Amino acid sequence: MLYSAWLPEPRYEESIEAEFKNYADWKFWLDPNRTAEVSWDEAATGEHDYLFATWDRE
């Protein structure tokens, strides 16, 4: 089976990341109680299995 054979190669798009970062005031935490905040750069490394994120949009 070649289910993923039609997918394009993954690539990094700096403009898309910039648009995403500017969409909201992103905050990331290691736990749902928001006691251990993680920076954007640390979250972007992918070293954590999961992170909790919220933002306020007005």
TrEMBL record:
Domain of life of the organism encoding this protein: Eukaryota
Protein name (database record): Uncharacterized protein
Provenance organism: Lophiotrema nucula
Lineage summary: Eukaryota, Fungi, Dikarya, Ascomycota, Pezizomycotina
